[in-house]
Amino acid sequence: MKPYLIPTFYRFTLFLCLLFSTVACRGNEQQQTQQTATNVQQQPTQREHRHHRHSERTADNQTNPPTNNTAAVPDYVQTVLTYVRQNRRAPQGYVGGRTFGNFEKLLPIQNSAGLRLRYQEWDVKPKVQGQNRGAERLITSSDDHAYYTRDHYRSFTEIK
């Protein structure tokens, strides 16, 4: 047997192994791509999902407007609201200040002058590492109105 044939045999074997592994990987990749495409087609887009996720509609398909029952607002919510109004930031250890989109349009869209309102959301309880933040939120508007939701944006109570 000639000495140069052995390295050629190993090279050829290595080439075949690489070729087969490449083809096998491509097959898996195409299958995963097809599954992902199918899943994306079956699910609504994230914006659509986010827009309609928390809408609570009445029988005639109208949204529930905020109520004015300030007595239903806990004292700790009033405390957070006072802090936010004075400092324009969340208290130490709380999450807050993010934009609230009002996608469900349960809160007013414009102020009395016709200007678009902007909203920010605030947690009403301190963040505890490793625990869910809960459903309660405080929403403040660019015209200094405030709203409390105990059910994560399904309904609102206006705070005076």
Automatic annotation (TrEMBL):
The keyword Nuclease applies. Residues 1-26 form the signal peptide. One of its GO terms (molecular function) is hydrolase activity. Residues 34-72 are annotated as: Disordered. Residues 34-45, 60-72 have a biased composition (Low complexity). This is Ribonuclease. It comes from Spirosoma rhododendri. The keyword Signal applies. InterPro entries: N1-like, Ribonuclease/ribotoxin. SUPFAM superfamilies: Microbial ribonucleases (SSF53933). Keywords: Hydrolase, Nuclease, Signal. It comes from the Bacteria.
